[in-house]
Specification:
Elements lengths: L11 H17 L8 H6 L8 H13 L10 H54 L6 H14 L14
Amino acid sequence: MGYQNISATVSDDDVAAIKAAVATIKSKLPFLITLTAAERKATYKTGANSLSFVENAQQAAVDNPGILPGSFNTPEFTSDVNLFATMTAINTMVAQVASSIDDTRLATGGEAMTEATQVYNYVKTAAKTTPGLKPLADQLGQRFQRASSAQPDPTPTPVKA
C-alpha cells in the first residue's frame, strides 16, 4: 500500500533511546572519518559493485605472495578489504533507515506545511473582520514573502479534506 497520511508520535523516551543507539554506533566505530571535498575527489571511488573485485584481488594477493613486491603489505590489504566489506554492509543498512527517515520527514513536513497554509489562509480571512489578527497574519505571511518579494503572494488555496 502506498503512502497515506502519517499520524504518529515519537516519545521523549524513544528519542532518547534512538540518540543512545546512534551514540553506541559511533562508539563502536571510533575510526570514522570525515573527508574534505578535495579528499573525496582524490579518493579512488569504490562502491558495493567493487566489493567482489577487491575481494578477488585480496585472495590473489594471499594466494600469490611471490608476485608482489616486498613493500606490499598483504595483511594491511586484507584488513582494508575486510573493513570495506563490513562498512559496505553497515552502510546499506543505515542508508535504508536514513532513506525511510528522510521520506517520512519529507511527507510529514508536507502534511504540516499544507495544514499550516490552511491555518494561514483562515487567519488572513479572519484578520479582515477580527481585531488583533492582522499582526499574526503578517507574521505568518513572512514565510511567503521571503520566497520571492518581487512576485505576488503564492499562498496555495486550502485543500479540502
